[in-house]
Amino acid sequence: MKIKILIAIGLIINTLTADVIAQDFSYGLKAGANLSSIVGNDVHCSEMKVRYQFGAFAEYRFTKIFAIETGVYYSRQGHYYEGAVNEPVGLEVKNDDKLDYLNIPITFKVYATDKLAVGISPQLGILLKYKGFNSISFMEDYHESTTES
After folding, report:
1. How far apart are CA 102 and CA 104, in angstroms?
2. How much is the pTM?
3. Torsions phi, psi for 8 (to 5 deg)
4. Nearest alpha carbon to residue 100 among 132, 78, 123, 122
5. CB-CB neighbours of 125 under 10 Å
6. Residue 7: strand, helix, or coil
7. What percent of the chain has pLDDT over 90?
């Protein structure tokens, strides 16, 4: 029984590492759009901001199927919100946040074909700069009505 388990483990390792000759290292630049907004219990309709991101990446493909990719990206993010808060009093809220991040992801990839991969990626995000505008004011046309029984 132990010999069968060892043979099975050996076959699995051999299958995964049979394409070691396919080792490949690639690197390059990436740039793109960044769409960001905030959602939650207190924010009902935050407007999405279209910002940008750019950076460099490196990928090491250690078998025909498995690869790891990392990079460093400068990313501008943010959101805009304008609305009314009626509880407990009538307030008008304006919020415009602009954030600059340095993002460092590590992506573990599995290639289905030579051109198609699926991956999972934890990411470290370091806030470099925050610029925000917040305004809270009483609504002029807000009237609280009470009825007595």
Report:
1. 7
2. 0.64
3. -65, -45
4. 78
5. 14
6. helix
7. 38
